[in-house]
Prior knowledge:
By secondary structure, the chain is of the alpha/beta class. It is 30% helix and 26% strand. It folds into 2 domains: 3-407, Rossmann fold, CATH 3.40.50; 416-515, ANL, C-terminal domain (GMP Synthetase, Chain A, domain 3, 2-Layer Sandwich), CATH 3.30.300. It is globular.
Amino acid sequence: MPFFGPPLDSTVPLLDILGKGIGATPDDAALVSLRTRWTWRALDQACDRLARNLLGLGLKPGGRVASLMPNRTELLIHYLACMRAGLIATPLNYRYMPPQIDHALEVTEASVLLAHAERREDLAASRMVGRLPLGVISYWDRESSADRSDFEALLNEDPGDRPLPAPDPAAPAIVFFTSGSTGPSKGVTHTHESLRWMFASCAGAFLFTRNDVVLPGSSVSHLGGFMFSLSALSVGARVIVARSFDAPEILPLLREERPTVLCMLPAALFGIVRDGHARREDFSSLRMCRGGADKVPAELEREFIALTGFPIDEGYGCSEVGLTALNPPDGEIRIGSVGRPIPGFTLSIRDDDGAEVPADADGRLWVQSRSIMRGYWGADAATSEVIRDGWLDTGDMMRRDKDGYLWFRGRKKQIIVHDASNISPQEVEEALLDHPAVEAAGAVGIHDPVHGEDVLAYVTLRPGTEPPTGGELIEFARERIGYRAPEYIVFLETMPLNPTGKVDRVTLKRMAAKAS
C-alpha cells in the first residue's frame, strides 16, 4: 500500500508570497546578505517595479526570461518579479559553459538573458545569446562599478501605471534544467500551482514560522536553494542569501545573522566543519541543519556532531517534485535515513513490474503530489516516461523500514550527481569523443565522500593516433563542458558494449566498483 505524509494545512498563492511578512512586520528585514538588506516593504516594492519594467521591455506573459547569475538577493527579486508579470523564469546553472547556455536558450526559446558581467567572455562565445530578441540584461555588483547596470535601472526606475496580468494558476512559472541518464539537460517546468504546493509542503516539513531565519547555503539557481528561500518567505521568515558557500562567507553569516535553519550541500558543509575558525557557538542559534542533494557521508555526520552537538537532518527530493521526505525536525532524526514523507505527499515503493514491495525491501520510489512538475519543456515523450497516472517515477531506489523511515539505496538512472549538479554521462562521453585520438568513451559516477560522486571516464584510442595522457583528455573535456569534465581517465583496450551495441555503462560501473 502507498504511505502518506501528513496533510497540508494551507497554501499561499505565488502572487501573495510576501503577504504574511508585509502584513505582520513590513519594516523588518526580509531578505539579507552580508552586503544588502531588504525590508518586506522594500522587497515588495522592488518586485513590483521590476515586474512592470520587464513587461515594458516588450515581454509578454508566458515569455521566457533566462538568467545566468551567481547568488544575489536580486536574483530572488527577479524570480518574484517574473511571477508577478506572468513571465517564465529560466535559471541557468552559473557553471554552465557556452554549449550548455546555448542548449537551454534554444530549448526554451528565451527572449532575454539576465547575466552577470563577469560572464561576458562566455556570452561572446555563445551562438544563441546574440540571437535573443531582447538581448542581454547586464548585472554587475555595485561595489565593482560606479555605473548603473541594466538590471539596476529596471529595478529602480518608475514604471508608471503599467498594469500587471493575473497569471493562470496552471500556467508555467519556472523552468529548471536538469540532466537525465542520456542526452542533454531537460527543462523541468513548474506552474504557479505546483510551486504553491511545493512551497507549502516544504514549509510544513521544516516547521517554518515567522520567527525563523533561514540560510539556504546553496545556489538559488538550483531548485533546492530556490525552494527553501521562497518557502521561508511564504510564512514570513527572514531569508539569508550567501554569495558563496565557503567558510569566509558562511561563518560571518552564522555569527551576524544568527539563522535558525541552515541548508547546505555535504561538500560545502565539509569545508565549514573542517575550517579552523569554526566554533560550536557559531551554530548555537540553529534548531536544525539540513544536508542534502547528495548522501551525507558518515564521516561528515561524525565531525558535524562533534563540532555542533547535534546531527545533520537528511532529506530527499528532486527537481521534478521538490522536497519529498525529511527527518522530522520535532521527532527522531534517524541518522543515515532520508526521513519520512512530508506534508502533501504520497509515496510508493515498487518493483520493476509496478507491484508494491514490503517494508525492508528495495524498490523504485514513486511519488504523488500536487507539486509534481507540469513536464519537461518541449519534451512530451520524456515527460510520459516518468509521469504515469498522476505518479512520478523518480527512478531512484529506496527502502522503507517498519517505522516508515526511508533509506536511499542508489540511483537506477545513470546520472552522476557531483556537488548536487546532475551530469549526463552522454555529455561527458561526447566531449571526449571530440578528441581525434578517442575512439570510444564511457562515463560513470564513483563515490566521493566530499562531492557525492566524481566522474570516471573509460576511453579507448584510435589506432595510429598520438595517444594523449589522461590529464590532457581531462583538460580537453573541461574546455568544452566545464565542471562536468571527468576527474579520472582509465584507458581500455576494448570498450564493453551492451546487446544493442551501445557503451555498457552497467559493466563499467561494476569495473569501477571492483577497482575501488
